[in-house]
Amino acid sequence: MSRGAILISLLLLLPQAALSQYYFGRNKVQYDNFDWRILKTRHFDIYYYPEMRELAEIGAAYAEEAYQRLVNKFNQTINRRIPLIFYSNHLHFQQTNTIPNLIPPGVGGFFEFLKGRVVIPANGSLAEFRRVIHHEMVHVFSHSKVLRALKDHRKTNFPGPPLWFTEGLAEFWAEDWDAEAEMFIRDAVLSGYLVPVSEMYRIYGTFLMYKEGQAICKFISETFGDEKLLQLLENVWMTDSFSEVMRFTLGVDYKKFDELWLYWLKKQKYPILQNSDMPGMVTERLTHKGINTKPAYVEYDGKKRIVLVSNRMGYSNIYEMAYPENGRRRHDMRVIIKGERTSEFESFNLLRSKIDANDHGELVFIAKSKGKDAIYRVDLRTTEVLDRIQFEELVTLFSPNWSPDGRRIVFTAVDFGGQSDLYIYNFDTRALEKLTNDFYDDRDPAWSPNGKYIAFSSDRTATGKHGAYNLFLYDLETGDIAYLTYTEHNDLTPAWSPDGRALVFTSDRDGAYNLWMVKIPEQPVQLASLEKLGDAPMTDLPYPCALDQKAKFKKLTNFVTGAFDPEWTRDNSILFTAFERFSFQLRRLRNVDRVFEQAEEQAPDSLLASVEPWTMPRLTGNSDVTTVSYKRKFSLDVAQSQVTQDPIFGTSGGAQLAISDMLGNHHYYFLIYNTATTRQDFLKSFNIAVTKIDLSHRTNTAFGLYHFAGNYFNFAEGIFFERRYGGFGSLSYPISVFRRIEASLNVRMSDKEWYGIRRRKALLVSNFISYVKDNSLWGASGPIDGERFNFTLGNTVDIKESNVNFYTLIADYRRYFRLSSQTTYAVRLWTAINQGKEALPFFMGGSWDLRLYPRWRIWGKKLFLISQEFRFPFIDRFAISFPFGGLRFSSIRGALFVDMGNAWNDRLEQVLGSIGFGARLRLGGFLVLRYDIGRRFVINDIRTGVRPKSFDLQSGMYQQFFFGWDF
Amino acid sequence: MNAMFRIGIVSLTLVLLAAACSKVRVQVDTAADDRAWLYPGGGLLHTAFRPDGPQPPLKIQRIVKLNAAPGEHLAALDSLLFIPIKNGRVAVYEARRGKLVGKLKYPVGVEGHIAIHPDGFLLMSLRLGHQTLLCYDLKQARYLWKRRAGLVWGPPIPADSSVYVVSKFKHADRYDLQTGRRIWRFGIESQAYAEPALTGSAMIFATDKGRVHAVERRTGKAVWEAQAGTRAVMVAPVVALDHGLVYIASLDSSLYALDLESGQEVWRFRAGGSFWKAPAVRDSVLIASDGMGTLYALHAATGQLLWQRAFSAPFGTTPLIVGGTVYLGALDKMFYAFELTSGRTLWQVALKGRVRTNPMVFLNSIVVGSEDRYIYFLVQEDMGVND
Questions:
Q1: Which pLDDT value is given to residue A646?
Q2: Least packed by Cβ within 10 Å: which of A181, A356, A741, B14?
Q3: Measured between CA atoms, how close is A661 to chain B, in angstroms?
Q4: Could you tell me the pTM of the whole model?
């Protein structure tokens, strides 16, 4: 195929690829149809839907606040209106079409620089919403500053600042240094895995990179001056090496900077160990691999169990393990629910949502399912799903907690408008009751053992504006809400002791998240309710409260890093999740009473009489604010022109253009290209295509018109000329994230000439329908777990001349068996058939299918392939040092493979095969280099049966070097 | 009369002889008047004040397009306007011919600052490179000397027969104007960004740690040191000899008035945002703007707030006081004229880019630059002809 033809083919594929997200791939499902509006403020166009109007107004106020703050910080204005697209929750955000990628749960928002868009979801917490807005606005200003600096100095094609710096700066200037950032950096320093600036590529794009970047910016600000951070952006024009930019700006290059920074960190963090401990040194570890969180303790059928969420084998699952007693060290884990593989359990919100189990052996948890969160009630004995509850108006759900009678649950939910409140659901009556009703973020509810109260964490406190959470108590009889703690820090995840006389919770009061405990006093408690603040009555309600002067209030743990999600057992122990060595693991604190008695007494919290909940800022009633309906306005995404030179086919050239609307729901692709080699051919050699894609609904559609003409080549047909023109329409319906149905209709005139042989004209109509599934989990060089397949059926017929008439069947099935956390057995079964008049051949051979054979040199109208591969880690880190520098590679994977297959037209005579070893090296985020070496074999005369003598292992070693992911 | 004029009144008449655009040659002809804008802030004290000049309403007489963004400070000598460009050049505009007549290319193509010695020397400081302090003889169209002065972020200040410069390499230097020989070096604890102010006997500058130094011009010995906040000072000190004060505008959002003789803090004014631009002063009125877009008029002797006005965007230039009018360019592309005594807007015009090049008086016009490569010549409405 000529280069021009290849280009055209690739471009023709482009819109279809965008529609179907390639041959496999998961789906971005448009579960909801949003009626978009635009709130126009002084500097922003805020895109929102009517249900979240209130939240949009609050976000607008935050955005304007961020703008004013950053104008002063950057000494820069943004002289354009900034598009700010809000979603009321993360599940809506995952449906955005502003970028084609699937958005994982951990992404809090993004700045897309092509259209200058900022896309942000809320998720219950207004403080977090504000923080993300500030974070993304730092990106907007940084981008503007860098572009300005390069433009001012007439510099083009300069690399911008590295990701660790831009993300670190956004984190640092968006928020105060908090306990979470401190936890990661303490752990990295004290556990010895802190990555220096000069090797930041090793953690590119990871959460650790964000936090290290933030810590570096903090160091620069405190040591060299806050203005140096800005100068690092302003000085990017000086050189294309950021190390040099650093040297010109700070006076030190990467190497020296690393020395200074690491020394500064050690001076700060090492002394902390004097009075604190790493969790691993003082508590018992119960889990080892992956992330293990959200423990729930349960006793049923006389057995003591722990249920937890873990991604120890890659996918997140819910596991049950026996509660370890009597020094037993081995903890077998049983999978209760397999997550992230089916549309029923798409994800578990691993780090946010707790789970709970009752004494009936019923587990309750939240899983994302088909566009919304669902509450699941599962029998732990049989793993049978007893209930699956979704609510019309509630989108994201968190942390269900059983009532003592085991018939009701209390949980947090974020509604369609983005408001986070507490709810009670009764499994017997199917009734839903709303407990709170405001924009405060109420989370981590815990039902008291006597059934009368619900303790929860909330930012409804006076300091909540800045992100502080205190503990509160909801009285189920009166509906009153009372303070349980009062601090400017974060008190989270309260857990009642089995007798209801103590509450343990996690708090960052002293700079790190630790477990704190308050015990019920001997004397009546003085409480202040929010409504009755100022004349707080004396009550005799018997529950623990840190505001009570007589209560015993102590810090249970003194960890350097952090402890989360405490859960009482019935043997005077507390289960919790601890962070250490960049991992969350389950731990146990035993003899809680004794630890409590030995702990130092803390001063009780004091509640000032003037304390009132904070109020949300809002941009309403302002002359600067107007609202309009969203109307599609298209702007440019990509425009490029290209000229190609080919010694055989001559010169050809053309251009491509892509435009889309602000929300990315509608796309147009234009292609114009000319492959004429003589003046006479100029008009008929135009290649033109126009495609329109609509992603605004669950069923994605595309249609277009095209005219292609040119010389083509393939190994089966040689060189031929073909002119095709017509139109096509296609649609893709995602059944879920993992499965979809695709269909297409293509009507075209085809005038094809095999030079010197024959010419035929046809009016071709092609119909295809496909069923695609992909739930694979990916590792460094390809899938490592799950399965994916594509079944396609179609036919192509010449409805005018009857010159062409064939049907197509393609079945491509791939399955990955996880043998251990590091190894996988992968198998691929592929067959394809084109049968009928002028049926087109299929091609194979090469690194992507039948390995060690020449690429695409095996063809026929029928094809089959069986590939098997054992994937394993080969070299984790590999470095070559030279006097002038060095090269470093990581995650080199190995593979042992056996392939068998062939392509044929009429009779399959033999099977070709290969066996060998391969190595894969991932470069950056998208390219994998592949090297395979091994031997070929042939199985002859298979029509008469496979016998030992028909197997021929050919002599000589073959090798191939190419690129591409594992199948 | 500012100290800079003590060197005598010299006027220059241009004769452009250079054939190549990288050469600029002028001929010293007659005495220059004392309005020449040779340095940032219009003089060695950086007051940014001229008693007379164009008054609003103004009109745009001419727009000159450059090939990159103009620098922060322009300088003029008679009918020649020198425009540093951020791609490593100095463009020369000649008023009588109304066009650019030459360009001088730095040895390395990086951003630099300029100042002019009235005897016809163009001093240049560079932000990158080895030889970062350059003296160009405009009469002979050749570099007189080049020196390693460290990375220099602000313009050099030539005065008498010397050149004063502060460096990011933590020192302040005095060089001989004719030979480039370093006369003394004063080590400082941290980096210094902005050019020094020169009084009759002292060189005053501030650092990125908020430290203010007064150094004896003749010997390089410390006269006094003071602390103006803890954050960086990015702009030059401004000296009001009448009040015996030096003003330090800091990123910590405070404006400090220090005693010129002792460095003692006399008053301090707390603003809403950081001071990214130097103030200007005329008699008893000090004009300053902060990073939040608020313009302040303070009593120069006491720091008492006379008036303040909030704007939608911060200002991108140092104020220029001409008679009773304050000229200021803003980051929302607006260029304003305010009444000095009240802050009332007298006139305004929208330019093509963020206004970041400080306005100056050039012959009968106000000259200002925007970051989208434009230099604007603004004259009184009743003068000149629109191009």
A1: 67
A2: A741
A3: 27
A4: 0.90
